[in-house]
Amino acid sequence: MPYRVMLGGRRQWYMTHLITREALQKQQMFFETLQHSRLAFCITDPTLEDNPIKYANPAFFKLTGYSEDEIVGRNCRFLQGPDTSEASIKLIRQAIIDQTVQTIDIVNYRKSGEKFVSALQIGPIFDDDGSLTGFFGSQLDVTEERETAERARQLADSELAHRLGSIVNVLTALVRLSKNDATDVDALITLLSERIRAVGNAHILALKPNQAGPAHLGDIAHVILSAYAPGVDQRLQIEGPPVNLPEPILAPLSLTLHELATNAVKHGALSKADGSVSVSWQVLPSGARDQLALRSAEAGGPRVHKPPALSGFGMTADLLKMTGGAITYDWCPTGMVATVTLPI
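-> structure tokens emitted (344 positions)
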């Protein structure tokens, strides 16, 4: 025997269906689940004028601050307000026209006037004959998540702008300082290309999307030093504890490693078959800011003599000085030893 069931609001907008006992049990279970769900949920009736709400669960009342009497029989647009975007409204209208399931972020307002960002999922409800009988709408308050994401985006934009500004400043200094290290235009172009490539490699590594947090000194050292000694990795010894490089010292330190590697290949240990370079570092406590102490030692190369001019080393000293760092050299007969200190 079929049964007639009335579900929904206390006073009006009842859903009436002739259903079998089994269907009645399933429908009762469905609405019982909605009644206890923490997800705000409502059902509208497109067969009535203005597609009004005919059912809303307690979570919907709690989210919006309205009572059942204030909600049932009204179109959902009463939740919209001054900051509700026209783009969101158009997406909802289109989902209703197309009768498709869509998830849309929309700014809604509680009865108190407080606005919130809702992840609204809307979709059609069809009967067994395929006729449209309603639309469901579920709302999830994602205000905090969206605000957190927006703050993260703004921080990333700010960091990127700062980093780009730093790169521009370094490149400007490179052009100014490198002109004293080249004898002609071709030599200057080659020198600048090498130095810019060293900075670029370091920053590309630091900006890799899958890398969380600052650039790591070990990664930077391997990228730069290996580039200047291809095929002789066994002659490079790189070791030290994990160190995250703050952005301000990334470019000066990468350029310093570039100049040390260039010297080793052109004039120092790596210019000989048996030569080697050892780069190591440690972090030393020093007042309010720790000090990074990096040591580069050449061995097995040609006999070392202090050059009359420091060439590129003068440039690195200037850049390190800008960030509170310094570099010293020990012109040992067995190989040059350079010591870099930087506050981190």
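DSSP finds nine helices and 14 strands in the chain.
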